[in-house]
Model the fold of this input.
Amino acid sequence: MDNMNTSKNVLGSDVEIKGNIKFTGELALDGKLEGEVHTDGTLTLGDSAVVNGNINAQSVVVRGKVNGNINAKEKIEIKNKAELFGDIRATKLAIEEGCTFVGKTEVNPNKVSPPPPLPRTQEAPQAPELVKSR
Done:
């Protein structure tokens, strides 16, 4: 059963899927997907790939178009002609020049928790000085 983790699957540009995909190993997708991807493996989106949905994977390589959020436990690579509209979260991130990316990123290679907010040092408001007139 060691083959399960190293299996490579290919869905060509003539494939259209409506629904969610779950797999282990590697998947190269060049077609269209309306749905979500869940995997502990690697997803590679080819030049003609179009995904409308969220992606949760170990690693993701984007060459095509994605309308959705990407969450990778390891790495996200956005190649030069890719179009990504959504938020991304990963341990490592590589973005090539020439891609389109609209969204927010969270990259945390050392799995560092955000520091607690610093306490605000507020000076007590000073009362205006009263001028006594006689």
Summary: The longest strand covers residues 70-78. The longest helix spans residues 3-6. The radius of gyration is 23 Å.
